[in-house]
Amino acid sequence: MVEDSTDARLFIELSSHAVDLLEAHHALTLALQSVQVADSPVEGAESSLIANAAMAYCRTFFLSKVRRPITTFVDIPDQVSATHELVVQFRNRTIAHSQSDLSVTYAIGVLDADTLEVVDVSAPNVSSTMPPEQVRDFIDLVEVVIDGLDEVIGPVRMRLLARLAAADRAALLESGPRPEARMLPAEEFGSQRTRPPYPTWHPMYS
Predict the structure, then answer these.
(1) Whether the Cβ atoms of residue 202 and residue 183 lie closer than 8 Å to each other
(2) Coil, helix or strand for 183?
(3) What sections of 37-128 are H helices per DSSP?
(4) What count of other Cβ atoms lies within 10 Å of the Cβ of residue 177?
(5) Dist CA 200 CA 159 (whole Å)
(6) What is the pLDDT of residue 171?
(7) Nearest to 132 by CA among 72, 47, 191
(8) N or C, which end of the chain has less CB nearby within 10 Å?
(9) What is the pLDDT of residue 190?
(10) 48: which strand partners?
(11) Alpha helix (H) ranges present in the chain?
(12) How far is CA 29 from CA 26, 86, 138, 193, in A?
């Protein structure tokens, strides 16, 4: 592990944003494949993938207890700002909270076609997800933000490389800290712990 420092913590913070953006990009790419590729292994998962992308993307912008919003480091260029606002509204009103008319549930009576006897009452839902054109715009938006983030991460990475090059690497290999995986039983799974700015271990469940 790179020694704990302000730069190391900044590198971790910035890179955690990159993880979310790459998750969004991957989900959007799969969403397009689900409607464009015959017999796609993710056929039928389009709306879920787009919803996941919206949540992952917006995690980088909303206030958090463990990291600053990505806009602290990266500006949203004017040419993609409309798509950014569209995604944020979609996340807020449809994905995180069920408020918009993109998901409508009806109360429908089912009658026998011949006798008009009441057979049942059902609640069909009609949901609309982001059309492919907007999905492609969303991908462009994510790529622009990733490019901006890469420009910020680059100098931090170079400073860490220089510091590591000047360190006693033999001593680091012999006694330096290493990430620790702590095996925990499945029944202890949970997210009640808050991750530190310089983590030294992570849980794994079995």
Answers:
(1) no
(2) strand
(3) 46-59, 78-90
(4) 13
(5) 21
(6) 85
(7) 47
(8) C
(9) 87
(10) none
(11) 6-36, 46-59, 78-90, 132-166, 169-175
(12) 5, 18, 10, 32
Q: Are 9 and 198 in contact (CB under 8 A)?
A: yes
Q: Which tokens hold the place of 99?
A: 């408020």
- Would you state the pLDDT for residue 5? 94
Q: Could you tell me if 16 and 161 are in contact, meaning their C-beta atoms sit under 8 angstroms apart?
A: no
Q: Which residues contact 16 (CB under 8 A, 6 or more apart)?
A: 67
Residue type, 200: T
Q: How far is CA 153 from the centre of its chain?
A: 19
Enter the pTM of the model.
0.89
Q: Find the length of the chain.
A: 206
> How, if at all, do strands 180-184 and 201-205 pair?
parallel
Looking at residue 188, its amino acid is E
Q: Does 63 have pLDDT greater than 90?
A: no
Does the pLDDT value for residue 168 go beyond 90?
no
Tell me the C-alpha to C-alpha distance, in Å, between residue 90 and each of 55, 57, 134, 165, 174. 10, 12, 11, 46, 51
